Amino acid sequence: MITPNEKILSQFAFSGKHISTEPIIAGHINNTFLVTYDKAKYTLQRINTNVFKDPYKLMSNIQGITKHIYNKMKSLGNDPERATLRVVETINGQPLFKDEDGHFWRAYYYIDDAKAYDIVENPSLFYEAGVILGKFQKLLEDYPIDLLHETIPDFHNTPKRFENFVKALEQNASRRAHECKEEIEFVLSREKYCPIIVNLMNEGRIPKRVTHNDTKLNNVLIDNKTNKAICIVDLDTVMPGSALYDFGDSIRFGASSALEDEKDLDKVYMVTELFEAYADGYLSQVKSSLTKDEIDNLAMSAIIITLEIGMRFLTDHLDGDVYFQIHRENHNLDRARTQFKLVEDMESKYDEMVEIINRTASKY
Ligand code: GN1
Ligand code: MG
Predict the structure, then answer these.
(1) Do 234 and 334 belong together in one domain?
(2) Is residue 44 classed as helix, strand or coil in its secondary structure?
(3) Overall average pLDDT of the 309-338 stretch
(4) Ligand 1: centre distance to CA 176 (Å)
(5) What range defines the domain where residue 237 resides?
(6) Residues, Cβ < 5 Å to ion ligand 2
(7) Is the model's pTM score more than 0.90?
(8) 224 lies in the same domain as 324
(9) Are 338 and 261 in contact (CB under 8 A)?
(10) What values do phi and psi take at 228, rounded to 5?
């Protein structure tokens, strides 16, 4: 891992005396550090430009939406500094610093006394995560969608993800395809799920909204004292998209009984109480903004995105681990397996999930 040196730190408008720089193992894409100064703490990240090809467009999205949320929260009388990430510019007033090796760095004020969970057992915490996604979508409802750049084209184009999977399978760059026949079969037999959301969007039946696109639970900060969710972080993939992918991705990760890379698949299933708690929190905020077609597809969205992410992990395993960072052998395959186990479990619980959504939606 490339750690930020003095020269990099000195480029940012950090205040006080530097005390420490510690890596934070978070996410599979960027490299993240907690940088402590005697006057404040910051999050410093090296942007993975293999994934985010245009870091300036990325930062333009982030600056736009964080300022929007900040101003709105302030006018609503909330503490805006804990309600959104805030960019720390460089000493030259830029949102990014490009180092001598061509790496891009960016910084945020660190939000202290709050935690991002990889797993929850307590439905009320997960309810809070649902509330904050609902609030996030509502706060951005009036954000001019045309200002947003598509940081990763076709990010949640599930049929395209399927095509990419088939290509990776044909190329078999890693020569691993023979070791994961069952997983490959799993994906191929579920192609029917892939076009559902994209078709609804293309037919104009569900609207394009400002969406987060990576709403997993560990991108939600929960206040240590109040146990309330305060904000959603990791804004790299905020783009025009469907609210369904955001709801579904939250369920994929947070309503799971186990971590995303659990090896013991007997431990992996969707916890119905968690699903219900999240749906309740989310719908309490957005029920009135969602269309009927959106509400009718919330349960299905969890299956679709879980299949999509599983497919992406398996694609990367077949490609030879070129996209997601891995920390052990077959890590992407383990991740793909947990996703497929969740898909199977959700399929068996689908009718109950639909019933929960209908019951919950009728409350609001
Ligand atoms: C990646 O940045 P990070 O690690 O939170 C990925 C998401 C996946 C997620 C799976 C830009 O998110 O799409 O859902 O891993 N982000 C990108 O955990 O590809
Ligand atoms: Mg991300």
Answers:
(1) yes
(2) strand
(3) 98
(4) 23
(5) 123-363
(6) 214, 234
(7) yes
(8) yes
(9) yes
(10) -95, 145
